[in-house]
Amino acid sequence: MASEKVETVVAGNYIEMEREDEGHGRNSTASAKTNLSKIFWNGGSVYDAWFSCASNQVAQVLLTLPYSFSQLGMVSGILFQLFYGLMGSWTAYLISVLYVEYRTRKEREKVDFRNHVIQWFEVLDGLLGKHWRNIGLFFNCTFLLFGSVIQLIACASNIYYINDNLDKRTWTYIFGACCATTVFIPSFHNYRIWSFLGLIMTSYTSWYLTIASLLHGQVEGVKHSGPAGLVLYFTGATNILYTFGGHAVTVEIMHAMWKPQKFKLIYLMATIYVLTLTLPSASAVYWAFGDQLLNRSNALALLPRTGFRDTAVILMLIHQFITFGFACTPLYFVWEKFIGVHKTKSLFKRALARLPVVVPIWFLAIIFPFFGPINSTVGSLLVSFTVYIIPAMAHMITFASASARENAVERAPKIVGGWTGLYVTNIFVVAWVFIVGFGFGGWASMVNFVHQINTFGLFAKCYQCPKHKV
Question: Is the pLDDT confidence value at 470 over 50?
């Protein structure tokens, strides 16, 4: 009886998305303008989800990974990328399973999601109660807030290498206003063309860093002394933990899919592609410049200015705008729900209501302009829980009872050893990330972050700029 019950639920699931999918087929006779809008604007396929995951995963972190290699050393840098890439894909899978479970239960109760975007804290609320909802809401929103801050800092850091007539703080003011225009993008459905372009941009930048570094060759007297100490080692490791913890928007991306049950392997496939970008670029830049990266957290700062480098800078600027929107959109949704305008159909009203979300992001980017070190701090204190610990624990508690496991929509994969292997894997993830990521990583990142404050001060006008440029 239990298996029949599950099969019935799955067959009748995803009512809203299937309607949307069918609607796309009926629109084939619409006007050329409408069809063009559908092609570039209204995405929800597995390919859209893959582009969203792959393009959102690296962003500005691509420019700080060589810095992490200088802290970790070549071997540890490569191993941590592979290890955290696999771990990040695993917890993204857990989040997708919990989303499917939550949505199935709600649709069994005839809940309609046509005018509502499901978010991670709502999944936790529906499956585990209000205390888990509050914990998830705090960590997820705080992480996304600082994730948006990091993108804004990266914009100012990058544009400075093309135009240093203005200091980085002034550029932060300018790009804060530019990034505020993301309030007009309604949801992740509307990132189709942006996600596609974002992946092209990161691919170009990655291969530019790789090829330019190899052609440049090693600088005179290059040294590769990493790892030089525990603080630097765990700071670099936590930056990589942050790199592959970009799925704080997994639920929103799934909800934007016409068939969200197909998400299962998307994040893993995206991670594999991202590794083909990050491993060569970080290795090549570290090989060429070695310990110089310890004082240059942005890899673009060390390469000579050429047309190719300026192109990489411009493409990364556009991509950081896109990633800012990715990180901010879930915050927009939370704020809309809080003030009661989430179901409003007027795009202008929703955009106006979203603007207050951008203000604290703008302000924090001006206070803490520490490109590179802030990644590790956010990774250790926020990503550790948001992306790794909470999903693993939530999955274990949700399916703790025999009846929950028997009636689970998504059964434990045999490849990991069924439910027993799944629990062992989750326990390992929680223990490792709590001890190494949050514990040692948090200690090292905070020591490094305080060092940046003591060296450059809060509201630094031009972080890591050459002295004659300040």
Answer: no
pLDDT digits (tens, 9 = 90+) for 264-320: 889 999 999 999 999 999 999 999 999 999 888 888 889 998 999 999 989 988 888
- Whether 254 and 96 have beta carbons less than 8 Å apart is answered as yes
Whether the upstream peptide bond of residue 227 has omega within 30° of 0, thus cis, is: yes
Check whether 321 has a pLDDT greater than 80.
yes
Q: Are 378 and 143 in contact (CB under 8 A)?
A: yes
- Nearest 5°: phi and psi at 204? -60, -50
Longest dimension (CA), the chain: 76
Burial track 116-131 (b if 16+ CB lie within 10 A, e otherwise)? ebbbbbbbbbbbbeee
pLDDT, one tens digit per residue, over 60-91 is 788 889 999 999 999 999 999 999 999 999 99
d(CA 97, CA 367): 38
CA–CA separation, 143 vs 330, rounded Å? 11
Please give the sequence-ordered ranges of beta strands (E in DSSP) within 3-59, or none if there are none: none
Residue 108's closest CA among 2, 10, 4? 10
Residue carrying the six token digits 């499917």: 100
Residues near 389 by Cβ (< 8 Å), separated by ≥ 6?
Answer: 429, 430, 433, 434, 438
Q: For residues 142 and 383, what is the distance between their CA atoms, to the nearest angstrom? A: 10
Residue type, 314: I
Q: In 371-439, which ranges are continuous DSSP H helix?
A: 373-378, 390-398, 402-406, 418-432
Give the Cα separation of 99 and 184 in Å (integer). Answer: 27
Instruction: Please tell me what DSSP assigns to residue 297.
Output: S
- The string of DSSP letters for 304-335 reads PP-HHHHHHHHHHHHHHHHHHHHHHHHHHHHH
Most confident option among 154-163, 263-272, 421-430: 421-430
Question: Is residue 252 within 8 Å of residue 444, measured between CB atoms?
Answer: no
3-state secondary structure of 344: coil
Q: Are 81 and 275 in contact (CB under 8 A)?
A: yes
Could you give the CA distance from residue 283 to residue 214 in angstroms, rounded to a whole number? 10
Whole-prediction pTM: 0.86
CB 369 within 8 A of CB 153: yes
